[in-house]
Amino acid sequence: MILGYELEGTGAGKNVTVFGDPDVFSVSDGIRLGAQVNAEEGYLVLGVKCQKDMGKGKLRVFWTALRDDTAKTFTQKKRILIRPDIPNVFAGESMVFTVVLEGFEDDRFIWKVKDSEGGTIDRNGKYTAPDTAGVYQISVESTAYPEVKATTFVVVQERDNNWQE
User: Model's pTM, two decimal places?
Assistant: First the structure.
């Protein structure tokens, strides 16, 4: 990280660009710079502290950030999203859940219905609702990355006896 600044119009008579600690150059303009870098989160914060009145002067800050090639390479977080999210289905009917993958491509999964009375789901995500209305939890887990999981709920509704398709 390289930080620098230039102070204009402060009556000092000349414009000087300063990089590093100004005390090294006997520049007593009262400016202090600092930077915080969080490479993991991907942000940079620059801070400027004026220790004396600058009047109507102008302060220009210059910065350059260089990547440290010895640092570990950023890897995208692996996650699974279930589609549709919180669907409605009638008792006894079937529907298919699908997944959206982020950070990996292995498509081997284990689907589960948490409640034993919550219906069934096959290895392809085809869910068959029970005959009892309720809200049931569905989960999917990657077999390649067991720590990568997702959960959603399905709302099972009783069909009205007057319902006609």
Answer: 0.53
